[in-house]
Design brief:
The complex is a heterodimer of chains A (332) and B (497).
Chain A: H1 5-16, H2 21-39, H3 46-71, H4 79-95, H5 101-124, H6 130-149, H7 162-166, E1 168-169, E2 172-173, H8 174-192, H9 194-204, H10 206-211, H11 216-242, H12 254-263, H13 275-294, H14 302-331
Antiparallel strand pairs in A: 1-2
Helix pairs in contact in A: 1-14, 2-13, 3-8, 3-11, 3-12, 3-13, 4-5, 4-6, 4-11, 5-6, 5-11, 8-9, 9-11, 12-13, 12-14, 13-14
Chain B: E1 6-17, E2 20-31, E3 35-39, H1 46-54, E4 61-66, E5 69-71, H2 76-81, E6 84-87, H3 99-103, H4 119-132, H5 148-161, E7 166-170, H6 178-193, E8 197-201, H7 205-211, E9 214-219, E10 222-228, H8 234-242, H9 246-249, E11 260-269, E12 273-281, E13 285-289, H10 296-303, E14 311-316, E15 319-321, H11 326-331, E16 334-337, H12 341-345, H13 352-357, E17 365-366, E18 369-370, H14 372-385, H15 402-414, E19 420-424, H16 432-447, E20 451-455, H17 459-465, E21 468-473, E22 476-482, H18 488-495
Parallel strand pairs in B: 3-8, 3-9, 6-7, 7-8, 13-20, 13-21, 16-19, 19-20
Antiparallel strand pairs in B: 1-2, 1-4, 4-5, 9-10, 11-12, 11-14, 14-15, 17-18, 21-22
The chains are: A mainly alpha (332), B alpha/beta (497).
Chain lengths: 332, 497
């Protein structure tokens, strides 16, 4: 009477899913690195590798925060403006008011968190679509910057502040260390804590989450606080790295961050994704530009090639999904 | 209309789903211009049969003839080419478009040589079609501005606007008011005059005697009989539908009356229900029977705090409680099993274990960190207790069968140790074996002292396991019966419009 076929179908689906999205991406990524190391000796020098990682580390931090929002079923386009706003705010505190560096940085991140509350409340309480809400809020944040700074950059930050973006710890650039720490903490947060479970649940099925007694609105606000604090962190490090804080800092972050997340296996419809996948996604985008430089290909090509890489990575996922659909249909 | 004027003939159609023979050698013929009703309990195979005729499903075995020629309908397009169309229960119109556009949606461009819509002709043709069917709706009106009943009429106009010989209607009156139902019947009569056959699936026996020429009774996937409506009556149809199993349906152990665990007084929410008062005792299975749209699910979701109430009081064990969110309901000991698994209860992206523990995950955590071994042990306990068939706790829940998914959701609710459980269509869409297991589980839960509100549209289910039955119609309670006071007919009378 019972589905004796159930078990064998399950094992079949297991086999088809044996390689997860993230793992197949890792394989592609590692093979790319291997090939490049063989044909480009300059690629595999420690110096080059650290430079590349430092280049994408800030986008990676933003992308990790963004991916938490995406997993919860949301969307955040305001990370670029928030990075600029909080960077300028922190530097302003240090330069104009001579406040201690660490307090200024802390307050900058706190401002990022407040921006997250603003976004979260717009989405959960005013019930605006996340895409529109964060697009509007990013313009508002940018407006605050332009009105207060009149477009002038903040410069002459204290010498010690430069360590954040330019310093080395045990021979490793400090931004890389921050990226790794953020990645580890977020991985633990998502996979080991109840909040992580709630985020996957809400992104997977928001009605079921409500009916299962989860406080969906609160969780969504927390997710934006997390994402926008990380955007603030990255924005402040960028100021330290560049030596100045201005409105255009971070303006090119939101879409690459979302692209890195999607390449890394995060589902735009929510409920799915892993932090290490996002890190690989960001690394892939970062390494491409490095390889182009090393191969003496004009940087004009970078945009074109990055576009095809996003399509390639995402279509692998789409092909896998349609194959899973076929398996599921056979069950009916 | 002679015996030989047969348009569509189905011969020995069989279809199996895993664990259940949905159709077993069904043979039916449909005459030209007749209204042919198909009746049977839920799960009898009506919808499966219609989906096969329409090509949405493919039969395992059997042949179809149209005008005595064998046809091979593999997909809905084949059916349309043969002049067969189907109107589904759910509205499939595009709400933001006009009535006329909806009627001609698949032919907007074929109607002119240029890639432009010829609006004047479109509205004129639509008007003709609507007038021919005697439907008074402006073809320029937007579908979203129409009532559900009017939308259903547009759905019909759309279905018959092409050169259609047979139209299948799946419970067309389930969302229609009394006058709209009359309208539908006059449309069906118009279709008959135009020699269009109508296959009419329904649960409402009265309608058959008003509109149908012949009726076919299905039971457990078998074609029991095809009768002329003039030569049968309601009682005969009911006994054919229910069959011999009527005896074992009524087996029910006595239950001892527990204390009153839930009492609601004058619950109101204008758009869904009004003046709802009832009590639920511990250890009792209280059935809520009514047609789809009677307001039962909305009542449950309002008690649960998912919809705000406009008035009324809820008492749990004699204490007045305020429930504003589903979480408040859980804290007050109310567990809810949602009506629609796919959209309301299953987390497709999570594993079996995650799905079981999500409501009560705090119990399996220290300082917000999940203790995986505790979680796995608890999940395995539920898997054994409810006999959930899954290779492991790490299996993605979406790979389980419907019945096993339902048991996973049931585990989630049991995990919060409820005193009251609201089960909304707990066996919808799951196969017969799993159904019996779910019923058994519900009885055991009641036996352990939980008060259970069982919302079901399946009469045999209500009669089989409920101790007491409340009937609802149009958002109001129309009856409150002890189990041995009622039979199918009483329930039908108390709930049908």
């Amino acid at each position: 009477m019972f589905r004796n076929t159930n078990k064998e179908i399950n094992t079949r689906i297991f086999k088809s899913r044996h390689i997860s999205d993230e793992a197949s991406l890792l394989i592609i990524f590692l093979s790319l690195i291997m090939i490049m190391s063989i044909i480009l000796p300059r690629f595999r020098t420690l110096h080059n590798i650290l430079t590349v990682i430092r280049q994408f580390s800030l986008v990676a931090i933003v992308a990790m925060g963004e991916s938490v929002v995406l997993i919860s079923g949301g969307f955040d386009l305001s990370v670029g403006s928030i990075a600029a706003l909080t960077g300028i705010f922190s530097c302003h505190l240090m330069v104009t008011f001579m406040w201690p560096i660490w307090i200024s940085v802390f307050l900058g991140i706190l401002l990022g968190a407040l921006c997250g509350v603003f976004n979260g409340v717009l989405i959960t309480k005013v019930k605006i679509n996340p895409l529109i809400a964060t697009l509007a809020s990013s313009w508002i944040f940018m407006g605050v910057i332009l009105i207060t700074t009149k477009g002038w950059p903040v410069i002459n930050m204290p010498q010690k502040f430069n360590f954040l973006g330019q310093g080395y710890f045990l021979g490793i650039p400090f931004p890389i260390i921050i990226m790794i720490v953020v990645g580890v903490i977020l991985t633990i947060f998502l996979s080991q804590t109840i909040y992580g479970r709630f985020i996957y649940a809400i992104g997977g099925n928001v009605i079921a989450s409500k009916l299962s007694g989860l406080n969906v609105d609160r969780m969504k606000i927390i997710v934006f606080i997390l994402c926008d604090s990380l955007a603030a962190l990255a924005g402040i490090i960028l100021c330290s790295r560049m030596g100045y804080a201005q409105a255009s800092n971070g303006e090119n972050w939101p879409l690459p961050a979302i692209a890195a997340a999607v390449i890394g296996g995060v589902s735009l419809s929510g409920g799915k994704g892993k932090i290490y996948g996002v890190a690989i996604g960001a690394a892939l985008l970062g390494i491409i530009s490095n390889i182009l430089v090393l191969l003496h290909i004009s940087s004009y090509w970078q945009s074109l090639i990055s576009g095809f890489i996003v399509i390639g990575a995402v279509s692998i996922d789409a092909i896998r999904k349609s194959r899973e659909e076929i398996y599921k249909k056979r069950r009916i | 209309m002679g015996e030989h004027d047969i348009f569509l003939r189905l011969k020995n159609i069989s279809k199996a789903f895993p664990g259940v023979q949905a159709l077993d050698k069904v043979t039916v013929d449909i005459q030209r211009g007749e209204v042919h009703a198909i009746i049977g309990e839920n799960g009898a195979g009506k919808t499966t049969l219609m989906n096969i005729i329409f090509g949405a499903l493919n039969a395992d075995d059997g042949t179809m003839y149209i005008n005595d020629e064998e046809v091979n309908i593999r997909k809905p397009k084949d059916a349309l080419d043969c002049g067969v169309n189907m109107i589904f229960q759910e509205i499939t119109l595009m709400l933001e478009l006009t009535v006329a556009e909806n009627i001609f949606i698949d032919r907007l461009f074929q109607r002119s040589k240029m890639p432009f819509v010829r609006w004047k002709k479109l509205f004129k043709d639509s008007k003709e079609i609507l007038e021919r069917l005697d439907i008074q709706i402006d073809p320029k009106a937007l579908v979203k501005d129409l009532s559900i009943g009017q939308q259903q009429l547009v759905e019909i106009a759309k279905a018959v606007s092409a050169n259609i010989k047979i139209v299948i209607m799946d419970e067309p009156t389930s969302s229609l008011s009394g006058s709209e139902t009359q309208k539908l019947f006059s449309i069906i009569n118009q279709l008959k005059k135009q020699k269009v056959s109508v296959i009419y699936i329904t649960h409402k026996l009265d309608e058959i005697f008003k509109i149908a020429d012949r009726v076919t009774v299905l039971r457990d996937g078998k074609c029991i009989d095809t009768l002329y409506v003039t030569k049968t009556n309601k009682e005969e149809l009911i006994s054919l539908m229910v069959g011999r199993s009527i005896e074992d349906v009524y087996v029910k152990e006595e239950y001892t009356k527990g204390e009153i665990i839930l009492e609601v007084k004058n619950l109101n929410r204008e758009e869904f229900f009004k003046n709802i008062s009832f009590i639920l005792r511990s250890g009792e299975i209280l059935g809520f029977y009514g047609l789809v749209g009677a307001g039962r699910t909305e009542l449950a979701l309002s008690i649960l705090g998912f919809y705000p109430l406009e008035g009324g009081e809820i008492y749990i064990k004699g204490n007045k409680v305020r429930i504003n969110t589903p979480n408040d309901a859980i804290l007050n000991g109310i567990g809810y099993l949602p009506e629609d698994r796919k959209t309301q209860s299953i987390f497709n992206t999570l594993t079996v274990k995650d799905n079981i523990t999500v409501s009560n995950i705090k119990k399996y955590s220290d300082f917000s960190f999940i203790r995986k071994f505790k979680e796995i042990n608890a999940s395995n306990e539920y898997i054994q207790r409810l006999n959930i068939r899954t290779p492991s706790v790490y299996q993605m829940v979406v790979n389980l069968s419907g019945g096993n998914q339902q048991k996973v959701v049931l585990s989630r609710i049991l995990d919060v140790k409820p005193k009251i459980m609201i089960l909304d269509e707990p066996t919808r869409g799951i196969d017969v074996g799993a159904k019996a297991e779910v019923h058994q589980t519900i009885k055991e839960l009641a036996g352990s002292g939980i008060g259970i509100m069982l919302i079901s549209s399946e009469m045999p289910e209500i009669l089989r396991i409920a101790d007491r039955i409340i009937t609802m119609r149009n958002g109001e309670i129309t009856g409150d019966y002890m189990r041995d006071e009622v039979d199918q007919e009483v329930l039908l009378k108390a709930t049908s419009l």
